[in-house]
Amino acid sequence: MIIDAKGLHTRELNERIRTGIGRGETAFMLENLQGQRYVGAGLGEGITIRIAGVPGNDLGAFMNGAEITIEGNAQDGVGNTMNAGTIVVDGNAGDILGHAMRGGKVFVRGRVGYRACIHMKAYRERRPAVVIGGGAGDYLGEYMAGGILVVLGLGVGDDSPVGQYVGTGMHGGEIFIRGRVEEHQLGAEVGVDRADEEDWETVSELLETFRGAFDLNGREFARDDFAKLTPKSSRPYGTLYAY
Questions:
Q1: Exposure string (b/e) for 83-113, b if CB count within 10 Å is 16 or more?
Q2: Which among 26, 32, 12 has a CA at the least distance from the CA of 72?
Q3: What pLDDT is recorded for position 125?
Q4: How many Cα atoms within 13 Å fall on the side-chain side of residue 39?
């Protein structure tokens, strides 16, 4: 089903998608998006959406298994509190990507803004994963509680692929960063190590999907190029609270 979103209000666009699903449509092509919000919010398995244009905030929020591909950039809050599914951004994304994400996968070819994956978490068998092809702004992985986050640093040259305060308040999950990361860039709550064989098996699976999503099958990555960040404690601020 093709929907021309030019001039449509956010509510009208999302109503058309849900009306189509009610009629049995499962594949959608959305053209001329101009910042409409909440596209794909709450949608479940079996629904695929391809987007030409720039979707607005909270793309795929609370998504439950749908698949979304963006032919370009996305704004803030991609995958907000997402439960399951896949989002592919063939461009850059804004701030708080993967905010409180609880499951599913997000792949971004380019850069992301500030506070990516803030409070990302895992629950039982759900383990969210985010792969960022370029770099990320400050407070990457802030208060992260679970899941796996990979930053590849493609196109950043000799610069660090991450900003300041990486992993501030982190108390779960793992961050893998390819490229230069200085101690002063890290939050006090994280420790730095190198990926082991088990780690690399998990990361390699994500990288294979990333390469396929963006037709980068000739691109190879080496395990030793990645720093692994993990939390020093599951309760980094435990002594600050009264019991």
A1: bbbbbbbbbbbbbbbbbbbbbbbbbbbbbbb
A2: 32
A3: 85
A4: 34
- In angstroms, the CA 181 to CA 177 distance is 8
Q: pLDDT tens-digit profile of 148-184?
A: 999 999 999 889 999 999 999 999 999 999 999 999 9
CB 141 within 8 A of CB 164: no
Domain residue spans of the chain: 1-81, 92-238
Q: What is the C-alpha separation between 50 and 67, in angstroms, rounded?
A: 8
Q: Which two three-digit tokens encode residue 122?
A: 């895992």
Does 92-238 carry CATH code 2.160.20.60? yes
216: how many CB neighbours lie within 10 A of its CB? 15
pTM for this prediction? 0.95
Please check the confidence at residue 243 and state whether its pLDDT lies above 60: no
* Cβ–Cβ < 8 Å for 75, 55: yes
